[in-house]
Design a protein that fits this description.
The complex is a heterodimer of chains A (270) and B (91).
Chain A (H helix, E strand, L loop, with lengths): L2 E6 L7 H14 L4 E5 L7 H5 L9 H5 L5 H4 L1 E2 L6 E4 L12 H13 L4 E5 L6 H8 L3 E6 L3 H14 L4 H5 L5 E9 L1 H5 L6 H8 L3 E6 L2 H9 L10 H13 L16 H6 L2
Parallel strand pairs in A: 1-5, 1-6, 2-4, 2-5, 6-7, 7-8
Antiparallel strand pairs in A: 3-4
Helix pairs in contact in A: 1-12
Chain B lengths: L13 H19 L6 H15 L7 E8 L2 E8 L13
Antiparallel strand pairs in B: 1-2
Classes of the chains: A alpha/beta (270), B alpha+beta (91).
Chain lengths: 270, 91
């Protein structure tokens, strides 16, 4: 069975594409056959984060408009041969995506034996975001511990429970996961940033993972290698944990506490 | 334990402020979610009409759609201000 997972947030710049790239890569590393689709028509970026920007010939919109086959448009990852990227179109208007067309592509992926399809949603609540979530079985809501991101995420949770195929069919609530990114335990301890618990309580959905703020995330996107490949970085390890949880493992959260200070620092401050 | 803390102005715990503000606004937005799109407009127009006669607070008019089994109930409540004029809540 194919599981369709939307990565969404409402607000832009919180790490949706970074997350989509790492979740897809992580699931593929665990042996699943995975496709990751960029729904951000006009603002394609997943290809850059996945490091396949120079190999895009056909895109999602070409497939929907029958200008290319799905096989032609799927880009095989250069590191994992069970991972595929479907790029967003760079030129068309945002009406280029249709519900019928998206449904057809997802059905075809299911028929091809994909285990997971990760839908990388654009920011906002417009058509692209709507279509990214419409067919999903599960949702990963990416949130920064910051007021506007949390509020927008709550708005998205409302849409997930009303404007999706599951909701329309009355198939029961979609499984929703909270993924906190850019988390800084030192600032949380200092009372400068909301904690995991704060955000979890406000939004009322279970935590899938907490990705600590890390310089390695920028380094990874600079080089077009999803950060989950970087086993030496805490962000990469945290994404690894999140993927394992998404895949059913039960693991404790890591990297959510500030490093313990030594005696001298405790006495004389930072 | 930091003995030098008194030398520095202690920053406010802004995380708590953020959490409390979000609790309120999220609860408020959830309450109006799922209702028909015209509710905010309806509420605004009702408020304008009521204000022609009584000077009420901007948040004095509450409009909600309640689901009661098969049917929906549009519920309006108007809180009138405490004043010498005879006033009672509910409408």
């Amino acid at each position: 069975m194919t599981e369709i997972i939307v990565v969404t947030s409402g607000k832009g710049g919180v790490g949706k594409t970074t997350t989509s790239a790492s979740l897809a890569t992580g699931l593929a590393k665990r042996g699943h056959k995975v496709a990751v689709i960029d729904f951000d028509v006009g603002l394609r970026n997943l290809d850059l984060i996945m490091g396949c920007e120079r190999r895009v010939v056909y895109d999602f919109v070409n497939v929907i408009h029958n200008e290319a086959t799905l096989k032609q448009a799927l880009i095989r990852d250069k590191r994992l041969d069970n991972l595929y990227v479907l790029a967003a179109s760079q030129t068309r208007d945002k009406d280029a995506l249709t519900q019928e067309g998206v449904g057809r592509v997802l059905d075809e992926l299911a028929a091809d034996g994909f285990d997971f399809v990760i839908c990388d949603s654009p920011a906002g609540i417009e058509k692209g975001a709507h279509l990214a979530m419409y067919f999903a079985d599960r949702a990963v809501v990416v949130v920064n511990p910051e007021v506007s991101s949390v509020r927008d995420s709550d708005r998205i949770l409302g849409l997930l429970s009303s404007k999706t195929r599951r909701a329309e069919r009355g198939d029961g609530p979609m499984k929703q996961h909270l993924l906190l990114t850019r988390y800084n335990p030192v600032r949380v301890e200092a009372g400068e940033m909301m904690s995991v618990k704060d955000v979890e309580e406000i939004l009322g959905i279970p935590v899938l993972g907490v990705i600590p703020e890390s310089e390695q995330v920028l380094a990874a996107s600079n080089s077009g290698v999803p950060v989950i490949h970087d086993a030496s970085s805490i962000a990469g390890q945290a994404y690894g944990d999140a993927v394992a949880r998404l895949d059913g493992d039960e693991i404790e959260l890591r990297f959510i506490d500030a490093p313990k200070k030594g005696f001298f620092k405790r006495m004389f401050g930072t | 334990m930091r003995i030098l803390d008194f030398l520095r102005a202690r920053p406010k715990n802004t995380a708590n402020i953020a959490r409390e503000r979000l609790r309120i606004i999220v609860a408020q937005e959830r309450a109006t979610r799922g209702g028909p799109d015209y509710l905010p407009l309806l509420r605004g127009e009702l408020l304008a009409v009521i204000r022609k006669y009584v000077n009420v607070d901007p948040d004095a008019v509450q409009v909600n759609v309640e689901r009661d089994g098969e049917h929906e109930v549009l519920e309006l409540s108007v809180a009138l201000p405490d004043s010498p004029v005879k006033a009672a809540g509910g409408a």
